[in-house]
Design a protein that fits this description.
The chain has a domain at 36-76. The chain has helices at 18-31, 38-74. The chain is 67% helix and 0% strand. It has 76 residues and is mainly α. The chain is elongated and about 65 Å long. The longest helix has 37 residues, at 38-74.
């Protein structure tokens, strides 16, 4: 069967050393990451919690409103 033009062959890992090479690559990439400071992490975690609580409250109020509207419409 002929190869499709423009389609690259998928490289196959060599037997035995694939796992070590993969994790070595992961570790080298993680060394390039600029990690946030403890203060930034704490501040952003607080922001995520506040936004989550606000969105949860808004969705809860919408749910209560639809429930009451449904009861009003169905007369139940």
């Amino acid at each position: 069967m002929a190869r499709t033009p423009g389609r690259a062959a998928i490289p196959r890992p060599s037997s035995g050393g694939f796992g070590l090479a993969f994790f070595g690559g992961v570790i080298s990439e993680l060394k390039k990451v600029t990690w946030p400071s403890r203060q930034q992490t704490t501040r952003l975690t607080g922001l995520v919690l506040i936004v989550s609580i606000v969105i949860g409250a808004v969705l809860g109020l919408i749910d209560i409103g639809f429930s009451r509207l449904f009861v009003l419409i169905t007369g139940g």
